Amino acid sequence: MSIEHILPGDIERRSFEIIEEELQKRNLYVPEEKKFIVKRAIHTTADFEYAETLAFSENAVSKISELICSGAVIVTDTNMAWAGINKKAASELGIDVKCFMADEDVAKEAVSRGVTRATVSMERAAMIKKPVIFAVGNAPTALIKIREMYDNGTFAPAAVIGVPVGFVNVEAAKELIIETDMTYIVNRGRKGGSNVAAAIINAFLYTLKVSS
Questions:
Q1: What are phi and psi of 137, to 5 degrees?
Q2: Is residue 5 annotated as a catalytic residue, yes or no?
Q3: Would you say domain 52-211 falls under CATH 3.30.479.10?
Q4: pLDDT class of 211 with cuts at 50, 70, 90
Q5: Contacts of 126 (CB under 8 A, 6+ apart)
Q6: Residue 1: its pLDDT value, please?
Q7: pLDDT at residue 5, rounded to an integer
Q8: How far apart are CA 44 and CA 125, in angstroms?
Q9: What do you get for the CA distance between the two ends of the chain, in Å?
Q10: DSSP 8-state symbol, 9
């Protein structure tokens, strides 16, 4: 295996070329309208399984694109996901990105109620007056709370990026979103993470920024 001499500005472009080549070698077919999302997830993780496990609701790509273009608010379940989202690209598209997890009052309320901070954070997000796109990369309890609010009619998210990673309730929580008629992009199975949640959001931001 030889070293490729790539200029710093060309590394990402070459990475995506390699991903495209390997998708073909592995006979992994990704619909063209979803490819920019799947390839960004693979680029972030070097894991080609995302080509098979990322699940999309009907017209999810076009609906989320429309939401972002119309000024929806993005809410993450971790500061890591918040930090990973490109704020410059978001700002240029007029998008606010929020995370309530580190708020002191959220932590206090979570302790007093015996619930996770993610649960309280999702409740805070439900108070936002604009359409909300959730980007969940860590906490299955965030997805469980979203489904609970959806079922009892107190809040309907504009869209859910549901890619928490882990073992406890992770797969079941993802299925709670998939079995609804919400707009979603969910990674089935245990894999995911805050980096993947941010990568999916960035895929939209970069693509829409270029086309705007």
A1: -120, 0
A2: no
A3: no
A4: low
A5: 132, 149, 154, 155
A6: 75
A7: 80
A8: 27
A9: 40
A10: G
| Residue 184: strand pairing partners | 160
Alpha-carbon gap, residue 6 to 150, rounded angstroms: 48
3 state SS of 205: helix
Parallel, antiparallel, or unpaired: how do β-strands 54-56 and 184-187 relate?
antiparallel
DSSP H stretches of helix in 26-94: 32-45, 50-53, 60-69, 79-84, 87-92
Distance CA 66, CA 158 (A): 11
Predicted TM-score (pTM) of the model is 0.94
Mean pLDDT of 39-49: 97
Contacts 24+ apart (CB under 8 A), 206-212: 206/86, 206/89, 207/36, 207/65, 208/65, 208/68, 208/69, 208/93, 209/89, 209/92, 209/93, 212/69, 212/92, 212/93
Catalytic choice (43, 117, 147, 174)? 43
- Tally of CB atoms within 10 A around 143: 28
How many residues would you count in the chain? Answer: 212
What confidence tens digit (pLDDT) does each residue in 140-170 have? 999 999 999 999 999 999 999 999 999 999 9
Give the confidence band of 7 by pLDDT, cuts at 50, 70, 90: confident
Give dist(CA 40, CA 50) in Å, integer.
10
Q: Which helix (H) or strand (E) holds 203?
A: helix 194-211
Q: Across the chain, where does the E strand assignment appear? A: 54-56, 73-76, 97-99, 132-136, 159-162, 184-187
